[in-house]
Amino acid sequence: MANIPLSRSEVFGELRKELHEDVEFHQSDAHVFIIMGASGDLAKKKIYPTLWWLFRDGLLPEKTYFVGFARSNLTVEDIRTSCMQYLKVTDSEADRLSAFFGRNTYISGKYADEGSFSKLQTHIESLPGGTEANRLFYLALPPTVYHDVTKNIKHCCMSQNRGWNRIIVEKPFGRDLQTSEELSAHLSSLFTEDQIYRIDHYLGKEMVQNLMVLRFGNRIFGPIWNRDSVACVVLTFKEPFGTQGRGGYFDDFGIIRDVMQNHLLQMLCLVAMEKPASTSSDDVRDEKVKVLKCITPVSMSDVVLGQYVGNPEGEGDAKLSYLDDPTVPKGSAQATFATAVLYVHNERWDGVPFILRCGKALNERKAEVRLQFTDVPGDIFGSQCRRNELVVRVQPNEAVYAKMMSKKPGVYFSPEETELDLTYKSRYKDVKLPDAYERLILDVFCGSQMHFVRSDELREAWRIFTPLLHQIDGEKPKPIPYTYGSRGPTEADDLAKRVGFRYEGTYKWVNPHRL
Asked: Does residue 76 carry a pLDDT above 50?
């Protein structure tokens, strides 16, 4: 019976049991979740929908209230209207949705005005159990207002009684080592590290969290997870669309700051780290920091930058180049694609290239980790064998599969590529995987920081990329043009090949459950 996947209601039942046995949950019975920047895109598309899903499924503590705060003059009804298309509400859930918005209130105020935060504090205390409630502040705001908002939260809105206070901070955490350190110093002057939750939503994804179980819960991978057997590791993040009107924001940060320095580097840590002493938050994060300390700053010679141009034969947006986005500065040299090669200089990984690839307007939507193993020594099959690979696909269609050689069926004695496949949709048919934000917001309620970024982790990540980013910002090298809908610049494939990745081009993964 233990092998039968749990139904959705059973999964939530188990979760509720775990959560409600947690001492943290009963420190105070009331919880207030404050959304700073409640009128913005992130709040509308992600935070309110996530809170609704958690509320709908009974995963939040019974007495949880939600308070929106922003500069705009809004009502709860306005917020409900703007969020509605993202909430995925069924007809049968109408009453539950009304109950959810019945727990919502909204306060309008200025981020730099202490009086507005005093008004917010008075409002929080007027809620049932508000004076002793646990408080979660989600900063869904541009970094320019972080200083004022956090200072005012600290001085006016913290729970002074039994309840705890937790602050959720969204990326970007600065734009280089110096600005990140300034932000970290500011936050640590106001809050303790165990109150700060730096959210990288990739750490909430099912397959990213699965990397630790795959590595440390299986005997078969331990002996081969090192430089003796692994030829290279490729971490990929591809999007099939361009900036689509977000070009102004994107142009200020670029693809390296937007994806590589955080999402891909976090995945690299989980692939490369040593086994932690336990699964406690600090033990796991200690090991991730050790990995980052072994990586030298990226060299420009190990980087390829690209920028997409329109495809004349494409349709709609595919005809447009990055520079055609009206929000992008004229003649911008900002990269929309990057490949970089990093090396972890320790006993396990010395000499193994970690190839980080990310880009917009590419041929598919995909995020994955790919370990390519070395050639079989003493080949007896006349060079017909391809390298083994272990692939963990994060999105879409979560899967783990190993590419391996097998005898071709029939009278011939020749090997062919096949795979051992675990595609989640087919193995776990009735299990709904929670959204990354659902997991992470639940973690904040529970006080688990494992899937959040610690300040020393952040410092090391910026140390690795800051020299390269300053060089790019200063020299403004012209990125290589690549066509919208392509694999990216061919020079990126050449770089991967040069450092040891072998792309055979002979094999394409096929979903065996659709054959």
From this structure: yes
1: buried, middle or exposed (CB in 10 Å: 19+, 13-18, 0-12)? exposed
> How many C-alpha atoms does 450 have within 13 Å on its Cβ side?
17
- Per-residue 3-state assignment (H helix, E strand, C coil) for 52-101: HHHHHCCCCCCEEEEEEEECCCCCHHHHHHHHHHHCCCCHHHHHHHHHHH
Element (H, E) at 482: strand 480-483
CA–CA separation, 84 vs 68, rounded Å?
16
Residue in 186, 263, 470, 513 annotated catalytic? 263
**Does the annotation count 263 as an active-site position?**
yes
Cα separation, 5 vs 2, in Å, equals: 8
Name the amino acid, one letter, at 449.
Answer: Q
CA distance 36 to 67: 9
Whether residue 514 contacts residue 424, with contact meaning beta carbons closer than 8 Å, is answered with no
* CB-based contact 363:239 (threshold 8 Å): no
Average pLDDT over residues 453-480: 92
Report the distance separating Cα 459 and Cα 410, nearest Å: 57
**pLDDT tens-digit series, residues 84-142:** 999 988 888 889 999 999 999 999 999 999 999 999 999 999 998 888 889 999 998 88
Q: Locate tokens 């917009």: which residue?
A: 360
| Residue carrying structure tokens 């982790």 | 457
Instruction: Please state whether the peptide bond connecting residue 297 to the residue before it is cis, i.e. omega within 30 degrees of 0.
Output: no
Please tell me the pTM assigned to this model: 0.85
pLDDT tens profile 334-354: 999 999 999 999 999 999 999
- The helix/strand/coil state of 278 is coil
pLDDT tens digits for range 273-286: 999 898 888 888 89
